Amino acid sequence: MSEPQGRPKILIADDNIQNVELLEVYLEELDCDIITAYDGEETLRAIQEQKPDLVLLDIMMPRISGFEICRQIKENPQTRALPILMVTALNEAGDVERAVQAGADDFISKPIQKEDLLQRVRALLKVKDKADDLERTLEYITQLEERPEEETAS
Predict the structure, then answer these.
(1) FRET partner for 112 with CA separation of 20 to 30 A, picked from 11, 21, 50, 123?
(2) Is the model's pLDDT at 3 over the cut of 50?
């Protein structure tokens, strides 16, 4: 059974360095580690290598769009439970619909209000933490269910 993690890891994926820096400043009051990525391919690589607990994902990304990144994350069984907060300057109803269809867990438009961001991030991290607890419990139950078969087999 895997051990609970310490500080949550948040991946900020945005091609604009000023946006990344602003989000980092806003998230300073949370006890978390920040990872950054500046294009779609780098974002997918960071998710595989760093295993973040939450992704703040810009829609307009070079190489691979935020919509496509989100879709790939949600289609992969290993990353499906990873919460994604879409962050974008786009605020048309169609963009929100596309983000939801791609699997986004929440959506926030620029300019970002600090308290709104922090509230959404805290909520998504809480959901992720509960999902991780459930996953560990299910692993434990599976291990318990497998033991009698192993004992009778020997």
Answers:
(1) 50
(2) no
